[in-house]
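Illustration 12: Exosome complex component Rrp41.
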Amino acid sequence: MDEKLSFFKDGVRLDGRRSDELRPIKIEVGVLARADGSCYMEMGDNRVIAAVYGPREVHPRHLQEVTRAIVRYRYNMASFSVEERKRPGPDRRSNEVSKVSREALEPVVLTSYFPKSVVDIFVEVLQADAGTRTAGINAASVALADAGIPMKSLISSCAAGKVDGEIVLDPMKIEDNLGEADVPIAMTPGGDITLLQMDGRLTKDELKRAVDLAKAGCRQIYEIQRKVLVDRYSHMEPEICDEAVAMAGEEI
Ligand code: UDP
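Figure caption equivalent — predicted structure in token form:
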């Protein structure tokens, strides 16, 4: 009998979450001795690590910008991170994820402070379970702060999706792969969206509900990112981010 998979059992999702619940999150700062800033993050069964280097000299030199730093972002999925071994090296998907993730973070980096230099961000996915781009952006944002890169704010990221006709927060792999839509976003604590993608089909009203739900998720993630940084740097006053905002006096 061809029985359709149901994503809900007794009103909860297959992993026991309600529709508006994030997966458990764990963040560790400063996990790599040789990076200027780093962060390890778990979002459910996703495990990612972000390393930040810079601001440093740009190579190749022709990429230099006279008035500002450039930001580079490389997202890489380890071969062993997925069920079916991933061929090592860049591909269309990882190039796309790298591009949109860089664009999600660049607006908050005060690049004009460091002309002719580069801020390099490397994100390695060690284990994937849908939402790796959002986990990578969250980890990279914390790693940038850990590196002391002046920023207007942190960036927080998560997705909302549609399964069995219902809008759900932070889809896990089975929901992402077999569901009807996936909407990853990234935003500043002030609610400015720096990433918005959509895979699948949604009505206008569903898209609005998905974005609102993902925004609520980002706000929860921001609180965790902030707490982890404050716990690590509470001896430093004023906080790096606040200082950067004050110095810049800029808005996105
Ligand atoms: N995935 C996979 N092999 C791949 C690419 C993706 O198994 O080559 C899985 C992986 O679990 C990933 C999920 O599919 O997290 C969803 O991928 P998507 O492209 O939507 O990006 P993500 O949600 O991870 O940002």
